[in-house]
Write a structure and sequence with these properties.
135 residues; alpha+beta; Alpha-D-Glucose-1,6-Bisphosphate, Chain A, domain 4; 3 helices; 7 strands; 30% helix; 41% strand; globular
Length: 135
């Protein structure tokens, strides 16, 4: 088994609204700034310019369970990212679980976790500001 760590942020926005926003790949550059610079739809796939170069993304099919899993295909390999939105009262929790795969140093794993933590905090800010503007 690989070392795993789940990063979670509490968001004062209904889970369905948070899921709708976060499941739209076109929104990634607005909140996943630590990794994604831009993203565009090319035929049946999403292609992003990232901190590591061009990447192809495949996302979980729309669902009612809050699953936001996605695969990222880079020249160095394909990575499956586990992400969820779960209800928490009138708000929600957004979770991202990172696995430390073979060849990833402890330092790199720590840096990846910090990037994820920052991106999820940005996602919380965007969601809460958007919800505040809609009221």
């Amino acid at each position: 088994m690989y070392r795993a760590h789940t990063v979670s942020v509490a968001v004062a926005v209904d889970s369905e609204k948070a899921y709708r926003y976060a499941s739209d790949p076109s929104h990634l550059p607005h909140w996943a700034r630590g990794f994604i610079r831009s993203i565009e739809r090319r035929n049946d796939e999403w292609v992003a310019q990232t901190a590591l170069g061009e990447a192809r993304f495949r996302f979980a099919a729309p669902n009612t369970f809050g699953v936001l899993d996605h695969e990222v295909e880079l020249p160095t390999g394909t990575f499956h990212n586990r992400m969820r939105v779960i209800p928490n009262g009138s708000g929600c929790e957004i979770l991202f679980t990172l696995l430390q795969l073979p060849g990833v140093s402890d330092e790199q794993f720590k840096g990846d976790l910090e990037t994820i933590r920052g991106d999820l905090k940005t996602l919380r800010t965007v969601l809460e500001q958007t919800a505040g503007n809609a009221a």
